[in-house]
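Message: A physicist's question: would you kindly supply an amino acid chain plus fold tokens?
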Amino acid sequence: MVATTTATRKDDSEVSPETLKAEYDRASEVKAFDETKAGVKGLVDTGITQIPRIFHRLPNEQFYESSVPEGDPRFSIPVIDLIGVSNDLVRRKEIVERVGEASATWGFFQIVNHGIPLIVMEGMKEGVRRFFEQDTEVKKQFYARDAKKSLVYNSNFDLYRAPSTNWRDTFSCRLAPDTPNPQDLPEVCGDILLEYSKQVMKLGVLLFELLSEALGLNPNHLNEMDCTEGLVILGHYYPGCPQPELTMGTSKHTDNDFLTVLQQDHIGGLQVLYNDHWIDIPYEPGALVVNIGDLLQLITNDRFKSVEHRALANRIGPRISIANFFFTALLPTKKLYGPIKELLSEDNPPKYKETTVRDYVAYFNNKGLDGTSALPHFKI
């Protein structure tokens, strides 16, 4: 486990943004990169030894030295065993308490014995690998910057807006509320995507039951609010990086959904900001990482926390992760979400305006991963 202080490197981190902008034409370089449709993997395949300037991390994206002793339990992300959650009332109560505590403090926890077969998890990971390592010309058919298709591949959803480009390629696939036509999915991973999404959706329903109970609500409350109506799966591919100290795999951010269930591989690099320390989230074989999204923080009126996290670049690669986002993203919707009335009182008035999922996601996406949260924009 690695935690961190606020020590910074003495290189481009001390150069003003104006100076950096003057040194190169970022817009032209970003456009040229995008037009290759080959992503970060395409750069790596050319054998580069120095990363292009567009990938250099932001001056405020600091790297740190370790400041927490190895194995310090105060800085260990909670690991919650779901065994017995559906048939043992005593166990379920214990699990609900742990889920509630982790959601209110860390905003993150890992789960084991969650019910998704290991063979399905491994199959999904290999499906992501096959997609990104297939022939570039085949992969390019799915390259796009709009979300009209069932599955879209690109590098950095906010490529033209973000001040720094992240060292990763991604495909995004909408699996609910409308199941895509198998013929519209890539041949190399279509079947496993559909099977994996069924398993993840079942788990999502259970997790929202536990979260509802942790809030003191009816177990079905969050599910009846349609928190599991939509599911988007993101397959992330982080190629090995020749200069990982200069860039980020994913810049610090919070998630713009209700809940994220993440599968990561053994390479690591995922970190969560906890008590002003960046903490590694270690790889646990068979485990899944769960984190609270912005929309769940909004409807719980800050009871549950959507916490900043990031992914470091690594010389070793590729790193593969699968992020399952519970939300309807940019689908048209009129349903308004605001703080849950049962959680409000004279001492706990609403802190957020009502918003649709689409409006929240549109604001978040337009802002991009600029190191700030979208939540303050929706505060009363």
Notes: The chain is about 30% helix and 15% strand. The first helix runs from residue 17 to 23. Residues 1-15 have pLDDT under 50 and may be disordered.
